[in-house]
Design brief:
Length: 703
């Protein structure tokens, strides 16, 4: 017969087992871990007796006693004395089986044996050693007291993919893994892949747009020079690096890095799943599949296991993407240390609680930036990240040009081009300034250059809130990036790449970004032909086109000549005035109470007809990016708003009686004064609404 003693299987002859059973009748006290047969033949041998498939299995454990009175196999003698079968059945069912935890067909019943002793209590001179009720984990043999804690303990094992016992040599099937497909790339993920703090391989389906934007940026860089070395510093599942290698092929040499061993293992499995060869790092002591020395294959991905700062210090790359959990500021110095000239660094920041001014002290600690919650808080977050990037690049004698800055619900994405040399570094550092923000009307302006103090810094604000309101009305925010957030030529080429590779989710956003970069409405958006588009110049870098020779303008891996750099600086100064205006206004934030606003697209046309540059913005669906001051913005908004209770809902300009004619600007203060005067005059007679309707007739706007 097989019996268990201290979780060890022992073979005992039947005769000895019968003798022990007979001796047990004479000697009643038994040990809590007495030899009990494990009748569950389908379950592994080394599991605790409290883990069974059926209730009958627990009853069979008690049937080993030939006596009419049978003890409970999971309770000590002093807690539950031996009884008849019907009473034992009720005891096992109510006390042990009903409160069990189920997992893959097995029940982990509550156990009262001396597996988990409780701290003894001293009562007089006697020591009462009480035994605590507990559960035995089916996976790791841990003892858990509460049932809810046991359920959470099992769920954590499942989320980590640990569905097999540590004592079983046969590997369980990977039923917990599931395959996710994105952009023709398959990756294996765990059930808790969207919870970064509880999984080693984080995969967020909501970041698909982020991955598509980064892919388009890399594709544009791959069109400038080939091949390029690109790094995904935080691989997780390796989905991003696999998409790069699968679509761009020989144009890129992909390196996927992660410091977690489980993530590296999953990255290798995902490479094989997508029929990609794995090239292991030289420093990595692994006997896995490698590529021979000197062999270059477009289907080969290099996988490294080291800290992101280390791999960026050791090697040079043309394209680096940083996407850690939270802020990226801890890796900026390493990223700019060895990145090649005219290379690209992209970073995704997911610490939106601090960047969106919900945790202002964290933003001050990470980015050295003072921010508050404003109507343009998303653009404020993007400029704070770029300011930190600019300072990190300047410490390495490098300047930047911002190619793309996107701030959406879940992340802030910044893509910059690196310009080597102290001159570009100084020019970039000068664009980091403080912002003066009025807390009453939310007017804003960047502080003037220079180190001299002003007697009244409120004079820089276009509004007069400080003179009409008591106390201090403005706050100093920053330091922030004051330059452009977009590069039109780069965005247009990203749009072409998105169309070429069929990235449907990125195309609408890229069109909005192009319009925002040019500060124009979507109706005026035009796509240049490929020959005209490729003639655009970015940072003095002429893009390779079929009609121009790349060798005459761009030398791979070498610094540009002094003449080209000087010409670039002159062109940048000449084109500085054409940059899109900073920040935007929310049309709902500045709406007039009691008035119907015009439709957003029509309001954009009204502002454009007034002579201002205007466009929509991706930061806010109801935001308007314009170079018009806030006072003029409100004037135009008031002019084309209609009363809510005038009986007319048509959109058109408000006509004031008397001297103000159609097409003239209507001061908001004058409208409010006239309205208040008429209401006060006829308030007693109860005809205020009628007078207001007669004084403000509405007319349908001709479309």
């Amino acid at each position: 017969e097989k019996v268990k003693s201290n979780n060890i299987d022992v073979k005992i002859p039947k005769s000895e087992l019968e003798a022990e059973d007979k001796g047990a009748e004479e000697e009643r006290p038994r040990e809590s871990d007495s030899n009990i047969l494990d009748v569950s033949s389908h379950y592994p041998r080394d599991k605790h007796i409290s883990i069974q498939r059926h209730l009958a299995d627990l009853e069979k454990l008690a049937d080993l006693r030939e006596d009419e009175r049978k003890p409970c196999p999971l309770c000590p003698e002093e807690k539950f004395k031996a009884c008849y079968s019907h009473k034992l059945h009720r005891h096992l069912q109510n006390l042990h089986w009903k409160v069990s935890v189920e997992f893959e067909g097995y029940r982990m019943c509550i156990c009262h044996l001396s597996c988990r002793p409780v701290k003894p209590n001293l009562v007089g001179d006697q020591t009462l050693s009480k035994m605590g009720a507990h559960y035995h984990c089916i996976i790791c043999s841990a003892t858990i007291v509460r049932r809810t804690d046991m359920i959470g303990h099992i769920n954590r094992h499942v989320n980590k993919g640990e569905t097999e016992s540590r004592f079983i040599t046969v590997r369980a099937p990977k039923s917990s893994y599931k395959v996710v497909k994105e952009s023709a790339t398959d990756v294996q993920v765990l059930p808790n892949h969207s919870t970064p703090q509880k999984t080693d391989s984080y995969f967020n389906p909501k970041m698909k747009l982020n991955r598509q934007l980064i892919f388009c940026a890399l594709a544009v860089l791959a069109g400038e020079r080939k091949p390029i070395e690109c790094l995904d510093a935080f691989g997780a599942t390796g989905i991003m690096g696999l998409q790069w290698a699968k679509h761009l092929r020989s144009s890129v040499k992909v390196t996927i890095n992660d410091c977690n061993e489980n993530s590296v293992t999953m990255i290798k499995e995902n490479c094989h799943l997508n029929k990609m060869k794995v090239k292991l790092n030289i420093r990595e002591e692994d006997n896995g599949e490698t590529v021979g020395n000197g062999e270059e294959n477009s289907d080969t991905i290099e996988v490294t296991k080291m800290d992101a700062n280390v791999v960026m210090h050791l090697r040079s790359f043309d394209f680096i993407h940083l996407d850690p959990f939270g802020t990226s500021v801890n890796y900026l110095d390493s990223a700019f240390r060895n990145v090649r000239n005219l290379g690209i660094v992209s970073l995704t920041s997911t610490d939106i609680s601090s960047l969106y001014a919900k945790a202002q002290h964290v933003a001050l600690r990470h980015y050295g930036c003072n921010i508050v919650r404003t109507e343009y808080y998303k653009e404020l977050a993007a400029r704070a990240v770029i300011a930190a990037v600019t300072r990190a690049a300047a410490r390495c004698n490098k300047g930047i040009e911002v190619l793309l800055a996107v701030a959406l619900e879940h992340f802030v994405l910044v893509v910059v081009r690196v310009l080597r040399g102290p001159t570009p570094a100084d020019d970039s550092a000068k664009k980091v300034r403080y912002l003066i923000h009025c807390q009453w009307c939310e007017e804003r302006v960047f502080q003037k250059e220079g180190n001299m103090l002003e007697e009244n810094p409120y004079q820089q604000l276009p509004c007069d809130c400080h003179g009409s309101m008591p106390g201090k009305t403005a706050v100093l925010l920053g330091p922030l990036w004051s330059g452009a957030l977009f590069n039109t030529g780069f965005l247009r080429r990203m749009l072409l790449e998105a169309v070429q590779y069929g990235l449907d989710e990125a195309q609408p956003l890229l069109k909005t970004l192009v319009c925002e970069a040019e500060c124009t409405t979507l109706k005026h958006f035009s796509t240049h032909s490929p020959g005209e588009e490729n003639k655009q110049e970015e940072c003095g870098v002429y893009i390779r086109t079929p009609n121009t020779s790349a060798e005459s303008y761009l030398v791979h891996g070498k610094r540009k000549s002094e003449e080209v750099l000087r010409g670039t600086a002159k062109r940048q100064r000449a084109e500085h005035s054409a940059e899109h205006p900073p920040f935007y206004y929310n049309i709902h934030r500045h709406s007039i109470k009691g008035m119907n606003m015009p439709k957003l697209n029509k309001f954009l046309n009204y502002l454009s007809e007034a002579g201002y540059r205007v466009s929509r913005t991706h930061f806010d669906p109801m935001g308007v990016r314009t170079n018009a001051p806030l006072a003029q913005f409100k004037t135009v908004l008031m002019k084309y708003s209609t009363p809510t209770y005038g009986g007319a809902q048509a959109e058109g300009p408000v006509h004031l009686p008397g001297e103000i004619q159609l097409g003239e600007e209507v001061p908001a203060a004058a409208v409010i004064k006239v309205k208040e005067a008429e209401i006060a005059e006829d308030d007693k007679s109860g005809v205020a609404a009628a007078v207001f309707t007669e004084s403000y007739p509405t007319h349908c706007a001709a479309e």
